[in-house]
Amino acid sequence: MQLGPTLIDDTFAEAFGMRYCRLIVTAADGYWLDAAVREFSGYSASVIACDAEIGIERRLSPAESPDGRVGVSLLVFGFSTDALAKAIPNRTGQCLMTCPSTAVFNGLPHSETKIPLGKHLRYFGDGYQKGKLISTRRYWRIPVMDGEFIVEDVLGVERGVAGGNIILQAREQSVALAAARRAAEAVHAMPGVIAPFPGGVARSGSKVGSRYKGLKASTADAYCPTLRGRVLCNLHPETNCAYEIVIDGETESAVGQAMVAAMQAAAGEGIVAITAGNYGGKLGKFHFHLHKLLS
Amino acid sequence: MQLGPTLIDDTFAEAFGMRYCRLIVTAADGYWLDAAVREFSGYSASVIACDAEIGIERRLSPAESPDGRVGVSLLVFGFSTDALAKAIPNRTGQCLMTCPSTAVFNGLPHSETKIPLGKHLRYFGDGYQKGKLISTRRYWRIPVMDGEFIVEDVLGVERGVAGGNIILQAREQSVALAAARRAAEAVHAMPGVIAPFPGGVARSGSKVGSRYKGLKASTADAYCPTLRGRVLCNLHPETNCAYEIVIDGETESAVGQAMVAAMQAAAGEGIVAITAGNYGGKLGKFHFHLHKLLS
Amino acid sequence: MQLGPTLIDDTFAEAFGMRYCRLIVTAADGYWLDAAVREFSGYSASVIACDAEIGIERRLSPAESPDGRVGVSLLVFGFSTDALAKAIPNRTGQCLMTCPSTAVFNGLPHSETKIPLGKHLRYFGDGYQKGKLISTRRYWRIPVMDGEFIVEDVLGVERGVAGGNIILQAREQSVALAAARRAAEAVHAMPGVIAPFPGGVARSGSKVGSRYKGLKASTADAYCPTLRGRVLCNLHPETNCAYEIVIDGETESAVGQAMVAAMQAAAGEGIVAITAGNYGGKLGKFHFHLHKLLS
Amino acid sequence: MQLGPTLIDDTFAEAFGMRYCRLIVTAADGYWLDAAVREFSGYSASVIACDAEIGIERRLSPAESPDGRVGVSLLVFGFSTDALAKAIPNRTGQCLMTCPSTAVFNGLPHSETKIPLGKHLRYFGDGYQKGKLISTRRYWRIPVMDGEFIVEDVLGVERGVAGGNIILQAREQSVALAAARRAAEAVHAMPGVIAPFPGGVARSGSKVGSRYKGLKASTADAYCPTLRGRVLCNLHPETNCAYEIVIDGETESAVGQAMVAAMQAAAGEGIVAITAGNYGGKLGKFHFHLHKLLS
Question: Where is each Formylmethanofuran: tetrahydromethanopterin formyltransferase Ftr C-terminal domain found (chains A, B, C, D) (predicted)?
Answer without folding.
Answer: 147-293
